[in-house]
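Hi V.,

Quick status before I head out on leave. The structure for the redesign project is tokenized and pasted below; the design run finished overnight.
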């Protein structure tokens, strides 16, 4: 998915409220103005991470190859990430200069991984055999700890043979401090300034001062100092830690290290995660290290699970699905401005997305209504207050994506936040009304009421002459499509040509209808009968024209969208205006849960969506 920008209309002015934030959550700095077309997307070169091991703990996440390596290749997507920055972009294990063979590779626990490796035949510089094939085993255990902004590693090297072995083992590190958008393909231009690596005994430190005035630091601390540190010739600033591992038959040696990340600011009011002292590292770096960290993680997850609605059933399969779903949700939890929300996905979308975070909170209301409350408060605090075409901000509009990395903070990209979404605002209204229906939390709804009014007014401002919520042409370099299918080719005609804006997506009209219906129910309970009646009347009129204008009788389905008549049709003398994008797609299914479909149309859409094509 490409996240960019497009042009918007002028709307109302929203006054500040208790929930309004004007600063980026990353260390409290307000975003700089965004200069359009400052950077450009380069052709995507990042290899697939479909088989990668991925760990996450709150805002800290790690992506490695199945063998545990982070290749010393800046075009790879692997690395240690925090706050939209890839701190560590190289971390390789080599024994006698060789990579090892993978036997076991798992990250089933989400925050912890286990990789078991064995060796090819290892030869010394003189050609002598150092270790026969598969005579050495290495167990590589990793645990993420976001509380300490740390990655804990232990490598247990075992001699499986009957003869002693002496092995040169090397761990090779490189810190690139790239913004996540640069990792994903944004043109890489020099921004900040990296300091030379700093060595001190058992520690290696990398530092980078960004264009956003943040000092980012990555520190590698070994329990026992390496036998030798040395630069890696083929890298710019990479360093290797060398160990000479001498093992008797059936003997083993454990190498333990901790990698910490830090953000520091020149602003004195900003707190910085403390670097681990050597004594603390040594105390934690014991054989029980990962068990202790696991116990802490398990206690936190248990406390969270106990706050959820419990699900019991007689199906082992369903029980397993529910258990895995809760575990995945726990890992997706993230925090911004002291409010929890569900991130959109790991690794590239491990941040606040309006659409994704709202839908997940909506789908989990029965289990965890509190995260819905926090998501609503957080999104309300970033609700649009002004008209800014570069960021697609408008008063009352709910954000699409919030980024806190160097490019966003320095004003190089518009994601601080970026508002290029036509559906986040009606989904915000739906979640607010559904949250009230589940909890009867009048206090939160009253707190949110100015934001609900502003969101409703934004919807009215951005409806076309027929009353459909639309999005228009993008600004230069902007997001062409603004529904959940937001790739450039996400809204095609049946012949594959892209639909032209303005575009009214089928599911967005369903959301707009559901938002009004559910808010009407809420306001009626709160005693505001006039507003409830007005919302119901508007929703009824929308439902009638929607079922007339979007329905494709010969296909038994709603059209994907209404869009501007194609230039070819206009050139041939066809009437201007909007026409159907006559494509059957899963988008039409959203009309079912939103309630805008008539019973007969709903039956036929359901039947059409179940067909093999």
């Amino acid at each position: 998915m490409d996240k960019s920008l497009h042009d918007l209309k002028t709307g109302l002015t929203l006054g500040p409220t208790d929930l309004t934030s004007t600063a980026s959550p990353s260390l409290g700095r307000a975003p700089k103005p965004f200069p359009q077309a400052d950077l450009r997307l380069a052709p995507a070169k990042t290899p697939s991470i479909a088989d990668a091991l991925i760990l996450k703990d709150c805002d800290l996440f790690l992506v490695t190859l199945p063998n545990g390596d982070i290749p010393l290749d800046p075009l790879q997507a692997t690395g240690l990430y925090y706050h939209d920055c890839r701190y560590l972009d190289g971390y390789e294990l080599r024994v006698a200069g060789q990579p090892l063979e993978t036997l076991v590779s798992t990250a089933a626990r989400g925050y912890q991984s286990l990789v078991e490796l064995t060796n090819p035949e290892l030869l010394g510089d003189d050609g002598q055999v150092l270790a026969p094939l598969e005579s050495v085993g290495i167990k590589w255990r990793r645990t993420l700890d976001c509380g300490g902004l740390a990655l804990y590693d232990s490598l247990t090297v075992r001699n499986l043979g009957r003869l002693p072995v002496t092995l040169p083992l090397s761990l090779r590190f490189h810190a690139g401090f790239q913004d996540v958008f640069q990792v994903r393909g944004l043109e890489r231009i020099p921004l900040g300034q990296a300091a030379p690596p700093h060595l001190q005994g058992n520690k290696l430190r990398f530092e980078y001062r960004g264009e956003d005035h943040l000092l980012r630091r990555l520190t590698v601390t070994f329990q026992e100092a390496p036998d030798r540190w040395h630069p890696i010739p083929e890298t710019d600033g990479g360093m290797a830690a060398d160990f000479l591992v001498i093992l008797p038959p059936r003997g083993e040696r454990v190498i333990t290290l901790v990698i910490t990340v830090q953000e520091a600011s020149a602003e004195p009011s900003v707190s910085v995660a403390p670097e681990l002292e050597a004594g603390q590292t040594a105390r934690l770096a014991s054989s029980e290290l990962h068990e202790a960290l696991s116990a802490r993680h398990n206690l936190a997850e248990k406390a969270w699970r106990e706050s959820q609605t419990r699900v019991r059933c007689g199906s082992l399969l369903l029980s397993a699905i529910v258990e895995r779903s809760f575990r995945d949700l726990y890992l997706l939890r993230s925090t911004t401005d002291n409010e929890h929300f569900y991130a959109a996905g790991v690794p590239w979308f491990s941040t606040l997305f309006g659409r994704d975070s709202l839908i997940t909170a909506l789908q989990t209301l029965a289990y965890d209504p509190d995260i819905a409350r926090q998501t609503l408060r957080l999104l309300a605090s970033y609700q649009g207050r002004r008209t800014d075409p570069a960021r697609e901000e408008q008063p009352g509009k709910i954000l699409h994506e919030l980024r806190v990395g160097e490019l966003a903070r320095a004003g190089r990209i518009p994601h601080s936040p970026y508002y290029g979404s036509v559906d986040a605002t009606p989904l915000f209204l739906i979640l607010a009304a559904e949250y009230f229906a589940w909890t009867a939390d009048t206090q939160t709804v009253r707190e949110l009421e100015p934001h609900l009014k502003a969101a409703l007014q934004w919807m009215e401002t951005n409806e076309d002459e027929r009353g459909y919520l639309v999005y228009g042409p993008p600004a230069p370099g902007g997001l062409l499509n603004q529904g959940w299918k937001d790739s450039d080719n996400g809204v095609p005609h049946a012949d594959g040509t892209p639909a032209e804006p303005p575009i009214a997506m089928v599911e967005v009209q369903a959301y707009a209808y559901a938002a009004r219906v559910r808010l009407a129910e809420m306001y009626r309970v709160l005693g505001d009968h006039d507003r409830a009646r007005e919302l119901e009347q508007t929703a009824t009129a929308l439902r009638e024209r929607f079922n007339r204008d979007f329905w494709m009788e010969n296909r038994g389905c709603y059209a994907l969208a209404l869009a501007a008549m194609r230039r070819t049709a206009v050139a041939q003398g066809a009437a201007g205006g909007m026409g159907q994008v006559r494509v059957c797609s899963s988008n039409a299914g959203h009309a079912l849960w939103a309630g805008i479909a008539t019973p007969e149309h709903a039956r036929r859409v359901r039947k059409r969506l179940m067909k093999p094509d």
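Above is the designed sequence. The chain has 14 helices and 25 strands.

G. will cover questions while I'm gone.

Best,
W.
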